[in-house]
Amino acid sequence: MLKRVVILAALSLLPSLPAFAFDIQKVVSDKGVEAWLIEDHSNSIVALDFAFKDGAASDPDAKAGLSNMVSGLLDEGAGDLDSQAFHGKLEDLAISLSFSAGQDAVRGHVKTVTQNAQTAFDLLALSLSKPRFDGDAVERIRGQVLAELAHEAQDPNAVAGRTIARQLYPDHPYGRPEEGSAETVKAITAEDLKAYLPHRFAKDRLLVSVVGDMTPAQLKPLLDSSFGTLPETADPITVPEVQAHASGQTTVIRKAIPQSVVLFAQQGLKRSDPDWYAAYVMNYILGGGGFSARLMTEIRVKRGLTYGVSSGLAPYAHGGLIEGGLASRNDKTAEAISLVRKEWARMAEQGVSPQELADAKTYLIGSYPLQMDSTAAIASLLTAIQIDHLGVDYLDRRSAIINALSVDDIKRVARKYLDAKSLDVVVVGDPAGE
Amino acid sequence: MSPFRKFAAASLIAVSLGAAPASAQVFNPETFTLKNGMQVVVIPNHRVPVVSHMVWYKVGAADEVEGKTGLAHMVEHMMFKGTPSVPAGEFSRIVAKNGGRDNAFTTADYTAFFQNVAVEKLPLVMKMESDRMAHLKLDDKDFQPERQVVLEERRMRIENEPEAQLAEQMNAALYLSGPYHHPVIGWRAEIENYRLSDIVDFHKRWYAPNNAILIIAGDVNAAQVKPLAEKFYGAIPARPVPQRLRNPEPEPVAARTVVLRDPDVQQPSWERTYLAPSYHVGDRNQAYALQLLAEILGGGATSRLYKSLVVEQTLAVAAEAGYNPQSLGMSSFDISLSPKPGVELAKLQAAAEGVIRKAAAEGVTQDELDRAKERLRISVTYARDSLHTGARVLGSALASGESIADVEAWPQRIAAVTLDQVNAAAKAVLREERSVTGELLPANPDEVSPERAERGHGGGLGALGREMR
Q1: Which of A312, B134, B423, B458 could form a disulfide with A11 if both were Cys (CB 3.0 to 4.6 A apart)?
Q2: How is domain A25-227 classified at the CATH fold level?
Q3: Per the CB < 8 Å rule, is A374 touching B97?
Q4: ipTM greater than 0.85
Q5: The CA-based dihedral angle spanning residues A414, A420, A424, A430, taken in that order and rounded to the nearest 10 degrees
């Protein structure tokens, strides 16, 4: 079953780092499946979070959206259980089991109370080893994807996101939506779906995180039953490295709405880039930091031109963006955009003050544990750390990395990455300015 | 600063929160009351050394006076605009530089402010939050741009979004007399006409310690919180606060249909909402029965609506039901459907009404009820797991007239609901004359104007392009 996908205007970021440590254990099962485990027996909940590091960007052009379709179908029946029987088991035991496809990974999430953990892992194992892809389920999920695509086509934020992605990545899969298009979604066949798993889901792509009421001894057999029968290796990933084609172009999609939605972006950096942390802190001060950020101060607080404006880093496995967005009444849109460019240029030319840097550091270090709100949230964080190859000691190292940054570091990356003249802009609305 | 709409797609999601509460001991909170009447609730949760500090005021959009709709939300915004010791705009910056996050939200029945911070920063945020309860000092030069911000917020949330506009219209059609008739964010013309003195008066009238609840969830206990609460909040004198009025809704006599056509709509939707009792108005037992009915009718992929309309008849791609029992006045029971592309809305409506009528006429089964109860029983464990859920559930309950005992007894009360009660509630609420139907449709074909894309390089867009160079 597919849940509504929210198109993000600006950025899903790997959160910053905690000021304290959890005890992360590396558990390896008999069949060689590794998981990171944080034992926490304070609440009778187990959260399993995993990723296959290969996603929608690897879908063939003519079948774009294949990973997303598979993700929507893995809980639509497996083994002897058809869709209603499979969902019936999940719902009766209040187990949540879901999959989602991003450009660079397919993620899976399981949450259960301890007493139902065995059933939850059994259902997961079934979904990964014997998915049915029944004809009626395939058509149901296809209908949901097509409805979602139609829904996004009426949403100015989604239209802006689609447009700027295409503009920045005209010849690369990052320029396509993860869901594909109506045309490619209609072209996906049952054979495409059945062939997907053996080629794309394999142990060499798998990262697993478990948090909650479970011991290593309990976890090992569950890892084997869920993931032990996967192939050892998946098809090679052929997604090319890519630079964003940002040249200062402005695209306006005319729509008769009272407020224009604006997105802007240019080439950014990958998570593994040595400049990552400096760019991350720089972005916080520029537009990532809510009411502490320059963009919010200049455009919302001082002038009342928008309800929200932000910028962020969007790293991909094979590229990266610095991007942002705002929404402003049509007669003020041009002014709001010119202020974005002005702040972009000011940051590139002047960098940040020692006080701004100090305040950014205390926020980015101090706020890190705030996201660890639930068992499932911590499991998701562990998977993100694994995807980015940050290491099992990352939580211990992060604060020192950020603290070591200097005003000069920030100034250097600002100059290197921010170029107001080549910032691409997409506007959806009816902006004044003719 | 996100106002939650009383009625919207979001209200369907809110159900699980309304339903998410507590157990024989759900959250096991500790509580005490300060001498000035301010209630304090502490929910210990020691997983990480952080706290969520929230102050909930028992005032919301439904407490506004005629002609000033949205004022409660505007006041929420202005709470960030300064006191003699914390200048305008500095509140959130101070929280952030101390490693915290803060925000606020307004609904029809309450207004809440929160900061999530490391536990050692708790005294700092208590000092600042109590400061703006007692010493808000506002200036017109901060008010005027903030009014524009709220107008932008209204454009973003409502006027740019056909679904939200439909929800706003349905809400106005559902509530005929009571203050829930009006949108939480307010009608545009009234937002444009507030004066600064309206803000100041509203704050003076309602933002009293005896009208507020302090909720702290996280790595603390009541013994640690008490001296701090006495020092920062206990020093603010109590003062009389007006009674909160919720006009009784007249008994509905006519089904209403609201149709919104918009040229941008490509995926139509169908909504149905029924005027329903809440914990406070009408039969309280029905409020528990209706939470189970919502699960059975539209709580997931095996629910009646989803199974019938999405799986078996393949007329829809999504089907959900929801009900929020928390309201000082009446509430609503909501159903939301998305047609499969190409399916006529009338055909989907006929099929949905078949499912609804059958449930009202014949009732649901004991097996369906038992399964729904088990799901809700387990949901308590998940609710308890999250630090923020406990604070939100208790805060919203207390601010809309529930007690801690009510929240903690929720699992037992859900478990005690009988099949007869669920079926009686379905029969009482799922009646045509209690309903508003909403249809979101594309514009008539001859009115559609296609999107036009214009591209420019720097200067390609007239003055807009020029300004951008």
Answers
A1: A312
A2: Cytochrome Bc1 Complex; Chain A, domain 1 (3.30.830)
A3: no
A4: yes
A5: 130
